[in-house]
Amino acid sequence: MAAFGSNLSINPYGKGVYPVVGGTLSAFWNSALQAGGSAASTSLDSMNTAIANNLIGTFFSNAASATNPLANDTLLLIPSELISVIVESENSYMNNQMSVSNVFNAKQAEFINDLLSGIKAVPVSSIGNATIPSTGTNIYTGYISNILDRVAQSGLSKDEKSPLYMTLMIAESAFQYWNNIVITPAGPFTAYFDGFGASTQFASAVNYANIPFWVEAAIEGCLLGYCNYSIMDGPKTQGNSMIAMMGSAAAINAGKVIFKWVPNGINPIKCC
Does the reported pTM lie above 0.70? Predict the structure, then answer.
């Protein structure tokens, strides 16, 4: 069974460059998300800059770490390049401008559609894995992990699986992050929660119901980041693709919570 919380493997079938995705990259993304949340009170530009600086700084500061999957990647995006990808992804999200069918094949799109539709079709508690906080032991695996196992066992190539693995890691990370702070409010986002200042019971119920939409925004941001990085000029690296996906996911997820973004269309991600 897939293990998002382990530093050993994201899945048992074909890890590629993802031996530490479950732990290290999830922590990197959470840090960038919180940095964006802390800066958003100033402006959207400040939020985007904080996310980009946090991600790039984190990867460079961990470049020599054995737990950093990009330790040998010397062509990392600079903050201004990452900001340009983030802004393009935000515009794509708000203006319904990006069709991922231009980037993903039919089988990849099937998994993307299943992920986006499924997270709002199952109970909120079943979206992600449930664990025992004191030990990290899984009580049960959620819907996102089921999709992960299907991707791992599919006939897709390593390169075709990689952006899906990254998207699923972001999805699981987003679920765990929002689920935790809705249950125990803390950090920069609580001031933007619906019902903030009302009764704890009311606020928790409203924001618990919002979790699928916040996870959806993270997924869509991740996919848009991949698409917008893929069409940039110049050589591409898998490491930069991962950073672009994390940056766009953090920005659109934070924007959804803070600015209450609503796309100008039913769904900014069109897979078919």
Answer: yes
